[in-house]
Amino acid sequence: MNKDKGTHGHEGVPYNVPLFFTVLSMQGHKFQRVHSVGTITDACEGGIEIMIDFPVQPGHVLQWDDRHKPGTLHTAIVKWSLEEEGLYRGGLKFL
Q1: Sequence-ordered list of residues with C-beta below 8 angstroms from that of 86, at least 6 positions apart, any chain
Q2: Domain residue spans of the chain
């Protein structure tokens, strides 16, 4: 993951994997669950970097199914995000 490479000490591997994500967040006192399409652009042992059409923010939790292990659910927290041309790039740390 490019931004966190120094933090985790892991070198990222470029990816281009489209996935369906579930974004979990709190809006005031209301719990929000939003389904969104995104792409994993980079992966390392500690997390992934994604591009997604939902405005993810640090603290949001994302879940998605493992493409290689049906029935396995991944969960990660957004550590950073940037808006880029109508999409959002985010760095996620696995939970």
Answers
A1: 53
A2: 5-94
Q: Are 32 and 61 within 8 A, CB to CB?
A: no
What CATH class is the domain 5-94? mainly beta
> Does residue 13 surpass a pLDDT of 90?
no
- Report yes or no: 48 and 81 within 8 Å, Cβ to Cβ: no
- DSSP-derived letter for residue 69 is S
Residue 38 has pLDDT above 90, yes or no: yes
Between 55 and 66, where is the model more confident? Answer: 55
β-sheet bridge partners, residue 47: 44, 93
Query: What are the phi and psi torsion angles at 36 (to 5°)?
Result: -145, 155
pTM: 0.81
Q: How far apart are CA 12 and CA 17, in angstroms?
A: 14
